[in-house]
Every structure is written in C-alpha cells, then in structure tokens.
Write a structure and sequence with these properties.
Chains A, B: Pfam families: HTH_Crp_2 (PF13545). 2 copies of one chain form a homodimer. Chain A contains 10 helices and 10 strands. Chain A is an alpha+beta fold and about 230 residues long. The first copy, chain A, has a 4-stranded antiparallel beta sheet. A 4-stranded antiparallel beta sheet of chain A has the order 2-7-4-5. In chain A, a hairpin with a 5-residue loop joins strand 4 (about 70-75) and strand 5. In chain A, helix 3 runs antiparallel to helix 5 and helix 8 (about 185-195) crosses helix 9 (about 195-210). At the A-B interface, strand 4, strand 5, helix 4, helix 6 and helix 8 of A face strand 4, strand 5, helix 4, helix 6 and helix 8 of B.
Chain lengths: ~230, ~230
C-alpha cells in the first residue's frame, strides 16, 4: 500500500511538473521552462546540512519536495531561531533577487528533498518577461506585507491571534497549487517567539477547536484560510 | 536665516528631482520620467489623515518629503501599533505591486508632505523595463529579508540589538540618496515591541555611547551603518 504523502512527493519530484504547476514559472515560454528543467538538480539530505552561509550570496532557488529549508540565526550567547520553509514552497525568491549577502544561514532539515535551480539561470529565464517579473514582484511584495503585519501585531495581538498569523505567513510563501498541509513542528513555531513546545500545542488546540485548522498525520492543514485571516488580523 | 532641514525638504519637494535621484526611477527613459512627473501630486497634511484603509487597495506610491506615513493596525481591544515610513523614503512598493487588499491602514502623521504617484501610472512606466523591474524586485526582496531577520531575532537578541536592527529596517526602506537623518520618535520605536518611551530612550543612549548613532535635532543619524549591522546581526 502506498502512502498518500508519498504520492504527493512523487508528483512534485519532477522539475518540469513543478515549473508547469507554478504561478510564476507557468507564465514562461516553453523553451525557457525546458532550459530551467535541464539546469535543475534533485538533492537528498538525510541529516541537516548547511546549504548557504550567512554573509555569502544565494546560488540557488530551491523547491522543497519533502522536509524543510530552515532560515536559521544564532546569537553569540548560543540562542537559535529558525523559520522553516516547508513542503511545496520555494526558498527563497528574496534571496535570489536581493543583491546583499544573506542575513541568515539556510539549513536543510533531516530527510529533506529539494529541487535546486541555479540562481543565474532563473534570472536569465525571467528578467525580460514583464508578466513573469510582475508575478514575482507580486509574490515577494505580499510576503513583505505579511512580514510587516507580523511585526505590527507583536505588541497588540494575543498569542492565539499571533499563531494564526504565523500559520498564514508560513503557508503563503510562494507555494504551488499542489500544496496541501503545512509541515511545521511545535518546536519550529515556538522558535519564532511563541513560547515553549507545550504552549504552542495548547494554542494549536484552540485553533483546532474553532475549526480553523486540522492536524493530520502531524501536519497542520488550514481548513479555512478566510477564518484564519479573520482571526489573525484582529 | 533658513533652517537646514527646510532646504532638504525644498530639494525633494520637486517630483522630477525625486525621480531623477532615485535608484529605481533614474533607470527609466526620460519620457517615462516626464510622464510620471506630470502625474505626480504634492499633498500637505497638517493633522493625521487616513490615506488608505485596511481591506482596500493602494492607489498611490508616496514619497515622504516631511513627516511620515504610518502603517497602522488596531486590535479589537483598543491596542494600536504603528510602523513609520519617514522623510526621504517610499511608502510603499509592496502595497503597489501586491494584488491583495491592504492588511493595515496608512495614516499620515501631522505636518506631513507627500508626493503621490498614481499606482497605475507607476506600473505602466516600469512594467516593460527589465532593468527597472529587477531593481524594484531587489529592493522589495531586501526589505522582505530584513523583515524575516527581524522575526528571527525576536527570541534570541537583546533589546539593544533589536533596536539596532529596527533602525536598519526603518532606514533601508527604499530611500533616495538625499536621505540624511531618520525621523522617528521614541514612541514609534516603542510601538513595535521595544517597550515604553523611557526604555527606548535608554536603549538609544547606549547606541549613542557606542558611537553607532547620533541624535541631531531630534533625528537619529546613523554614524556607521556597518557597526550598526554588526551590532544588530548578532
């Protein structure tokens, strides 16, 4: 018997499928899609690997087939913070189009499969395509807006509202239409400022009770994005 | 005797000057710059005015000549959070290129002068110019990266480090080369999660002592962006 999750991963393991089902890349002419497909490389990581270091420049745009790419920051005092980019999402458009060195490390989680598209090839494929550029700009803009709102909510929202908000941010990162659940751990959610694993579990429970999310096989599935937005945005 | 600040405001009160000295718009052909100049409108506000409401769509890209445009969010319980976009900066590229309704209100501060460029005219002027689009994408990407880092630092940095970080975010918002000081109040800084006005004053004092910033006529001047970055990013 084949596992449901496995089927999903098989579908998106093919670079051509990923590009053709994506909001941005599907707008490209076929020859550009084919060129990008040929430049793509599938990467498998059993253990966490440092993909790109803070202070260097991104060399790839990654599509997360399984596992996650974790934006990671360490403090001098030994603190650690992670923002995971999960299955079915891109990591990250902003790193590819910014011209400054990376501000945080990119780590793969354990059991992670990625499709890597070289940054230079991505830029060559899209830079002279106005519709595609507008679409990328739209997605990066919406991400920036969500992040702005997250900062604004820091002082005025309850922890429950902030969790709803964080789920919106994590699930809106340039995902393809094939994305279903959000694979984030309670530890991940706690690491961006919502407290301990136990506290995050309690907060998630409240969202489940309200019918806004479901937990299925350890994944968070957003039942109603509309209600989640209503809850998150005051 | 004319005030120094006033001279600066006079220079940037001319839409053509603003466009020609800007990293993005200066890349446009001259006829496009002229078209945008003709579509521009100078707006003066003596008292705070609601410019755009949450739930609607942005209609203008604003350049802040004096005062500020404040991204503002209210909670049901009466809480209020503001993120100011200050003199010499654009408010906001992300609102113009996103396709979703605004997630927060845009308010003018008191004594605010703006140059408003209609969103539709801006998009028409830039959409088929690959170099310009790449530049806009670069700036929005870098903003998104800074915001990501701000979220990552929430749990692992000291208040002093976070303040340094916030100053970097506020001063990097798509500014023109004529920008000097950062006009933000202690109240503004406190509103994004750094505590009371008094606490923010103490934190600013520490940064002044370290020679990273100066306070001149109530404005924060960044003495060394490099050292501020070093302090902020762990």
């Amino acid at each position: 018997m084949r596992h449901k999750k496995y089927e999903f991963e098989e579908i998106i393991l093919d670079p051509l499928n990923v590009l053709q089902s994506d909001d941005v890349f599907s707008l490209l002419p076929l020859d550009r899609i084919n060129q990008l497909t040929q430049a793509a490389r599938v990467e498998d990581y059993r253990t966490p690997i440092l993909l790109e270091s803070r202070g260097t420049f991104a060399e790839y745009l990654w599509f997360v087939v399984a596992g996650s790419v974790d934006l990671t920051l360490y403090s001098k005092e030994g603190g650690i913070a992670r923002l995971p980019i999960t299955q079915g999402h891109w990591a990250t458009w902003a790193a590819v189009f910014g011209s400054k060195p990376l501000e945080f490390d990119f780590w793969s989680a354990k059991s992670t499969t990625l499709i890597a598209f070289p940054k230079a090839e991505v830029i060559t494929a899209v830079h002279d395509q106005p519709k595609v550029m507008l679409k990328i700009l739209e997605q990066v803009s919406e991400n920036a807006t969500l992040l702005n709102t997250w900062i604004l909510t820091a002082t005025i929202l309850t922890a429950e509202q902030r969790l709803a908000h964080l789920l919106l941010i994590l699930s809106s990162r340039q995902h393809t239409s094939v994305t279903k659940g959000l694979k984030v751990t309670r530890e991940h959610l706690g690491m961006v400022g919502l407290g301990t694993r136990q506290r995050v579990s309690r907060l998630l429970g409240k969202l489940v009770q309200q019918g806004v999310i479901m937990i299925e096989n350890g994944q968070i599935v957003i039942s109603s994005r509309e209600r989640l937005e209503k809850l998150a945005l005051i």
